[in-house]
Amino acid sequence: QNWIQLRLEGGPGTNRAAIGARVEVTTADGVTRTQEVDGGHGRYTTQRDMTLHFGLGAHCEADVTIRWPNLALSTQSFTVGSGYRYNVKQGEAPAAALP
Q1: Cα 2 to Cα 16: distance, rounded to the nearest angstrom
Q2: How does pLDDT run across 23-56, given as a tens digit for each residue?
Q3: Count of CB atoms within 10 A of residue 25's CB?
Q4: How many CB atoms neighbour CB 21 within 10 A?
Q5: d(Cα 33, Cα 46) in Å, to the nearest integer?
């Protein structure tokens, strides 16, 4: 099955780790999946991986919308192909990297 991974980096007015960013990924069949970047939680100061993983099923691309955690709650939208990890800096186009 197809997938994408997104690693976010906040810009001016947003924390660099993009903690609090909300990401929506929508496939061609109209299904939307949502995840948020979160910080440490749980016991013993554990933390989830900062890279978000989305399964796309049989779809080869997806529309991505990021709501950044800055004062204006600015958004950024783009379309990406499956099978890549994308580094996304706030306000810039996503950069694909091999997983």
Answers
A1: 28
A2: 999 999 999 999 999 876 666 666 677 899 999 9
A3: 22
A4: 26
A5: 24
Supply the DSSP string of 10-74, one letter for each residue: --TTS-TT-TT-EEEEE-TTS-EEEEE-----SSTT----SEEEEEEET-SEEEEEEE--STT--
Can you read off the two tokens belonging to residue 65?
């919308």
Distance from C-alpha of 40 to C-alpha of 49, rounded to nearest angstrom = 10
pTM (2 decimals)?
Answer: 0.90
CA dihedral 1, 35, 53, 10 (to 10 degrees): 140
Compute the half-sphere exposure of residue 49: CA atoms within 13 Å on the CB side of its CA. 6
Taking only Cα atoms into account, the Rg of the chain, rounded to an integer number of angstroms, comes to 13
Q: Which amino acid is at 87?
A: N
Closest CA to 35 of 49, 27, 23, 47: 23
User: Which two three-digit tokens encode residue 83?
Assistant: 């099978």
